[in-house]
Amino acid sequence: MIDLDAVLQGNRLAFSRMLTQIENDTEEGEQALIELYPHTGKAILIGVTGAPGTGKSSLVNQIAFHYRNPEDGSTPKTVGIIAVDPSSPFSGGAILGDRIRMKSLSGDPGVYIRSMASRGSLGGLANMTIGMVHAFDAAGFDVILVETVGAGQAEVDIARLAHTTLVVEAPGLGDDIQAIKAGIMEIADILVVNKADRPGAEHTERALKNMLQLAHPQLRRKFINNHNDNLENNSDEINLWETPVMKTVATTGEGLPELMHQLRKHRDYLNESGELRYKLRNQISFELKHKLKNEMLNRFNKKIDGQFYKEIFDQVLSRKLSPQKAVKVFLEKEGGE
């Protein structure tokens, strides 16, 4: 039984047990999220994504350190870190190695690191990442950092979840064409060239800036708004954020004060422009549709008889029935029972 009062009072053991229940998608974890939801909506949510090898974990480590030890004289913030690691397609396991790179934070009582496996989920996040974010938020963490899998250009779900999205690049990982590809670059609120002490950093920075000149800022809002079709859209009334390109060396902390300044600047922009309210509406819309899709699939699996499913599957396998027609047959069967 989860002691929610203990979670709200900052008990780490109760919090850890609750996270396990949420990640495993148990009834106990679901009930905890229902009861904790009124306590959410206060945390600053920052997403960090990018290709493998760009140094995302080291950068998250430095961002957390600077929130805990602010150079501007502000009050230190408590930080929750959710690091999503890719799962093996065969065993379903994951190394969960991000804690190794963040071991310098392990002794800080104001930081809590939770690794979780993607378990085959696409888009860079695990299915229960949103639930984990709510748990950290309700537990009183001021800042929540979500590090995505790091699988490449398809990791765009984080832009629908985070208030501020950092896309991390590094020199030597691709040519100019790679740098300007659509998709993951267009979700960035801040572009970071990490490992900027390596040869080619200036070339990478220049390619990213050229990409930003070609991009249309309204496209990003349109992408995020795909999950918010039924809600009002006042995008024409909002001054659009101009994405900066920052250079950092996460292993030494070089460039981190400037990056932290941009994070604060983007937060101020969200509050002053009203964009934060827009993002929160999109976040809730994305979560609702995500949960509806999963719930409908679960109900379908429970309702459709296994033998009937096998019969239809075999017909598709033998090319007697198309996948499109098979879906209609399943829906008709479900609706008729």
Count of helical segments?
14
What structural category characterises the helix and strand content? alpha/beta
Report the CATH topology name of the largest domain.
Answer: Rossmann fold
Ranges with pLDDT <50 over ≥5 residues?
A: 88-94
Query: Main beta sheet, described?
Result: 7 strands, parallel
CATH architecture of the largest domain: 3-Layer(aba) Sandwich
CATH class division of the largest domain: Alpha Beta
CATH superfamily caption of the largest domain: P-loop containing nucleotide triphosphate hydrolases
- Spatial gap, N to C terminus: 36 Å
Number of domains: 2
Task: Explain what you see.
This protein is an alpha/beta fold and 337 residues long. The protein has two domains: 40-273, P-loop containing nucleotide triphosphate hydrolases (Rossmann fold, 3-Layer(aba) Sandwich); 304-336. Helices cover 47% and strands 12% of the residues. It contains 14 helices and seven strands. A seven-stranded parallel β-sheet has the order 3-2-4-1-5-6-7, sandwiched between helices. β2 (79-85), α5 (98-101) and β3 form a beta-alpha-beta unit. α2 packs across α3 (27-36) and α2 (12-23) packs antiparallel against α6. 38% of the residues are buried.
